[in-house]
Specification:
single chain, 175 residues, alpha+beta, Alpha-Beta Plaits, five-stranded antiparallel sheet, 6 helices, 17% strand
Length: 175
């Protein structure tokens, strides 16, 4: 029989999973409370919230939030870093903070981006991506360059026709 505390914990976790742009799962065996507090403090400015809960409650919350596929990652002591801001920057901040701990038993085990589950390698790839705004700017620059080249090509054909007609006109005037 679920207790009121567990029900409220699941509701809170479900809400966090729904609000977060991404989440990174951490395995934190042998991490002291002071180190965990330091980790939370380091990540807070990046708009990242670290929450520890029982694996069964996390599993229920992910199912309730519609973010399934993480069940196999909920083994051992699990912490979740909820990223509310830029996903690549958040994943990089979490990865860097975990590496800064220099603990063998603290590692990124996976995560979720939107509704897509990620393994540890996927989170690492996410952390090396450029921010969304930069990717959009690169894409728009490429599209703009292509449109400019197309306009120049089309304009070049018309210019050549005009030059040919002008030369023909000059030839007719000479005769």
């Amino acid at each position: 029989m679920p207790t009121a505390k567990k029900i409220s914990d699941v509701a809170e976790l479900t809400s966090r999973f729904q609000r977060a742009n991404a989440a990174v799962l951490l395995h934190y065996r042998e991490l002291r409370v002071s180190e965990l507090s330091d980790l939370r403090r380091k990540l807070r400015p990046s708009n990242i919230e670290v929450k520890i809960a029982k694996n069964t409650l996390l599993l229920i919350a992910t199912v309730n939030a519609g973010k399934e596929g993480l069940g196999s990652l909920f083994t051992g002591p699990t912490a979740v870093a909820f990223i509310y801001g830029n996903e690549p920057q958040g994943a990089k901040a979490v990865s860097d903070a975990v590496k800064a701990l220099r603990k063998e038993n603290v590692k990124v085990t996976g995560g979720i981006l939107g509704a897509t589950p990620l393994n540890a390698a996927g989170v690492e790839r996410l952390s090396t991506m450029r921010p969304r705004e930069e990717q959009i700017a690169t894409l728009l620059g490429a599209l703009q360059a292509s449109a400019g080249q197309l306009a120049a090509t089309l304009n070049g054909g018309i210019q050549n026709l005009v030059y040919a007609l002008a030369a023909y006109q000059d030839k007719l005037q000479e005769q």
